[in-house]
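>> received
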Amino acid sequence: MLKAILSLSTDVDFVKSAFDYVDENVDKFVEDLKGLCAQPSISAQGVGIDECARLVKEMLEEAGLLVELRKEHGGNPIVLGELMNPRARKTLLFYNHYDVQPPDPLDGWLHPPFEPKVQDGKLYARGAADNKGNIIARLKAVETLLKTIGEVPVNVKFVIEGEEEVGSLTLPDFVKTNKERLRADLCIWETGYIDEKGRPNVYLGAKGILYVELTVKDPSSDLHSSYGVIVDNPAWRLVKALGSLRAPDGKVLIEGFYEHVEKLSEDDLALLEMIELDEESLKRRLGIRSLLGGLTGLEAKAAYYLGPAVNICGLVAGYIGPGSKTILPSKASAKLDFRLVLKQSPDDILSKLRRHLDKLGFSDVEIVYLNGYPAGRTPIAHPFVKLVTETAAEVYGAETVVCPSIAGSGPVYLFTEALGIPTISTGCNYYDSKVHAPNENIRVKDFITGIKHIALLLSKFASSYG
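>> returned
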């Protein structure tokens, strides 16, 4: 039976029947996605997490998977689903996350963030792109195979966590204690993008991250601002400390920050050369006049995909309400993220940050570690890279762009290093999905094509080499 399925998996009739099934069920699939997006799951605020985990579990069970909710490490529930074929020779693992970012600012949304709405061919909702659209696309691809050929010719596993947006704090322990359960030949990571030319962008890794909060406290309570001539202001102290971290061109000024950053390889440079960057279009879309430090061409691409950085995510001090209030605040705080590349360690950078501040006289600046993990990558030469890129090109009808890493972060290292699984990111987002911003969205056509891609990938993976 399996041999027949493997033969069928590359047959034109199979592809047509599978794709026809997807096209016939567009409305149902979109409604299922809307249902998942309507359930809030804000990990940073602890809103709706358990409810969303149970909903994801139910959706996987309805598709025929055996599912467990795992919470033994004290964090948010991890949904672990399996569809095992006793005759299958390969196992494919899907990594996703059901938690989302806070929807603020609410006044920037066209529609309420947890009331999904399709408008002009786009589904708007918090989590539509990051990452619920890809969860449903993968689940519906499994359903498509079950409905059209009666079986998925490979073992399929889903690990869907609820802490990705807050640093995947308990995922390392979960992976460590569940290595055998998570064993697979290939992991498809959470997301991918369609660029402005309609080409699927596939990613071979993700940056690491170090997320911290810096705080200055002094005086003991807010004061009248007249004291500003004799009392130091913690906001000024914090601003000066922040200003010491980065040069105007974006270079990080912490001593030893670039110590372990390796020179880009020939493979890295070759991939970057293949990526087209329409700088004028990018600047218009982002609403900026120029790229940081005047970056352009290959240097801009290298910085975006493979460069480390420090970023201020938020600043809070004193009175920020309407009108005026003349005070000297007693506390000032800032949240920062450091995007890290291969060989950089969050612990090492945290230590260097502390030494940097102390050396410059900012020992009063408190550092609170919030989360962090290193970067991870899959080599371009791995044979499964060709499988993913060729199936994407076949479905999208456009050349696949292979990127060495996503510009953002994700705990890819747990899969590439701890589990030793080649990990490749592909999905149904697009260049203007507004991830983490108001009006997050995916295009319905990309969602549907993404289902078809995963269905084709599952079928061809059964007979692929690697």
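>> DSSP finds 14 helices and 21 strands in the chain.
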